[in-house]
Design goal:
This protein is α+β, with helices and mostly antiparallel strands. About 40% of the residues lie in helices and about 30% in strands. It has one domain: Alpha-Beta Plaits, CATH 3.30.70.930. The radius of gyration is 15 Å and the shape is globular. InterPro entries: MTH1187/YkoF-like, Thiamine_BP, UPF0045_domain.
């Protein structure tokens, strides 16, 4: 079964305004997984089989766990049988139905 997971993960014990170096470490792990992903401003979507996606989520957590004492993590999931390229298809479906009411 295919799953799309939106993952947000970052340390809560680091000083400064930007946590992007930590997020970049996580994105490197996601990218190297070979799974489809899409970086967004508030989280990253990852698409694949449940076990593979959850392995990547675990690797992301373990990466930050090395030098972070407090980690914030949220996961949202959408699972569907026989779906391929769901991240693209879901967005295209909405855009094809949207009208500009201005």
């Amino acid at each position: 079964m295919s799953v799309i997971v939106e993952l947000s993960i970052f340390p809560m014990d680091k000083e400064g305004l930007s946590l992007s170096p930590y997020v970049a470490r996580v994105i490197s792990i996601i990218k190297s997984s070979g799974l489809s992903y899409q970086l967004g401003p508030m989280g990253t979507c990852i698409e694949g089989e449940w076990s593979k996606v959850m392995q990547v989520v675990d690797r992301c957590y373990r990466e930050l766990e090395q030098d972070c004492d407090r980690i914030y993590l949220t996961i949202k999931a959408d699972s569907r049988r026989n779906r391929t390229k769901g991240m693209i298809a879901k967005v295209e479906s909405v855009l094809s139905k949207a009208t500009d009411s201005r």
